[in-house]
Amino acid sequence: MSQEFSKKEYYTRIKWLILGRVVLTTFLVGTLIFIQQRYKIYSFPTASLDYFVLLVFLLTGIYWYLLRKIKNLALFAYLQISIDIVLVSILVYITGGIDSAFSPLYHLVIISGSIILSRRGGYLAASISSILYGTMLDMQYYNAFGFVQSTNFTSLQVLYLVFSNILSFYAVALLSGYLSERLRKTSQELHEKNIDFADLRVLQEHILRSVGSGILTTDMAGRITSWNPAAELITGYSHDEIRNRLQDVFGTSIKGFFGHTDKMKERPYHIRGEIEKKEGTVVQLGMTASLLKDEQDVVRGIILIFQDITKMTEMEEQVRRQERLATVGSLAAGIAHEIRNPLGSISGSIQVLQGELDLQGDNKHLMDIVLRETDRLNTIITEFLEYARPQADLSAILVSGESSEVLLSDLFNETVVLLKNSRDYRDGITITSTVEADAAVKGDPQRLRQVFWNLLINACQAIQERGEITMSASPMPGNDDVTWSRIVIADTGSGIAPENLDKIFDPFFTTRDSAGGTGLGLAIVYRIVEDHGGTIEVESQAGRGTAFTIKLPGIEVPAYSAVPERLRKSEQL
């Protein structure tokens, strides 16, 4: 005998069968007992009904006890349905047999059998009901075994009544079985759909938790209805903190989404903006908005997907800067060679003329201007050539191993000595150097010296009267047994205006007058640091000073054992 339902389903249905039997018996038989005692509408004694009710209650107690003990609940259900048919037959017999008004209770038992035991249970209940009801009517008709013959029906009427009831039993079994089967299949499909829906919901939650992009949904009033962990990580705000602060955090850029719903019907709406995180830092966001629709395709809100593109924006700026550098570099070599040769001839010729001619007054002043401007042009060409120096030259040196392991302490000292003998240095400037003994890099010492020289010259020029320049270098942990060196050169000068911070590494950008600089110094610094595989960053506040932070690949870790202990810690230079 195969079970069509789970044990839990059988348990639930049998429990309702037990409770339903008690309620129905109490109501129907109790009502009949009350009417019979008061109005005597039937000839049978009321005591027989009392015994019947007690029998039902006794069986109910037994069933309730066995419900938790019996493992084969399907067989237990078959037993109860069969006993219920016997009970209905007893009640029909007590209340007059063929004259009884309780014969429709057979149909309720058949329906119960179909609900609990599917079609097989319904047909079995219909068969047992047909046998017992038909047998009882036959014995009543023939006065057998104490059954009293009814005077209200003829033999043909009894035969027709038996036939019609049996037909109705099987009809009810057929219909209730069909409906029970449909109910079972529908319940099973609903259960499977619920499982699929639960799996889909879990999958959706896992996706929202795992995706790296921030995702939020809003209603049409702009209130946030969902907020995934990545959104909390990017902004620093939890769902409760940002629930009613969408406009405050995202600003006016997100407000525009609600005015472009027509555009979003065709394609998602893209925009870039910036927000201030909870801790106060400002980040750039790339945002994509789409319409949130329900199953009727009615717009219910907006889905906003956003990412922190601050690093990507910085990389794009670096790429643009590289493109500008590459363009200038490709032109530099040709222009420099075409200009430098005749410029040298002009400078030499003027110097010869100046020595041979006795120039006085304005003529001598004009000749000095020509020589000075010629030297200035030569300086520009020299820096231009340095800036346009092919990157492949240094890369080949680094790869081949011909580059030197440079101690930054020595390099700092040499550069400072040169600086103190330059015209840009003056007595009001104090230079302090703090270098750790194992701070060393692998590269071209001449080009690295030019990096520090250019930065120190800029620092001296930024200090108006008195100020301090600090230089520091220390190793940093890296990967693959290679350490990095962190170099900081800071001054207390006039600083850089915020609008110029993104331009200082561009070629020919300068804030000094035309006679004071070429605008190539920091561009050359950037190029040399990049050629060495490092990075350079700048922080500045107008009126308070500027700090350049350089990170360069250092030497391999085992090589540190050979570094001599000749550190100048906080040495006053």
Would you kindly provide a written description of the structure presented here, covering whatever features stand out?
The protein is an alpha+beta fold. It has four domains: 186 residues, no CATH class; 97 residues, 2-Layer Sandwich (Beta-Lactamase); 75 residues, Orthogonal Bundle (Helix Hairpins), CATH 1.10.287; 171 residues, Histidine kinase-like ATPase, C-terminal domain (Heat Shock Protein 90). Helix content is 56%, strand content 17%. The chain contains 15 helices and 13 strands. The strands form three sheets. It has a six-stranded mixed sheet with strand order 11-12-10-9-7-13, with helices on one face. A five-stranded antiparallel sheet has the order 2-1-5-4-3, with helices on both faces. Strand 3 and strand 4 form a beta hairpin. Helix 1 packs antiparallel against helix 2. The longest helix is centred in the N-terminal third of the chain and has 56 residues. The protein starts with 6 loop residues before the first helix and ends with a strand.
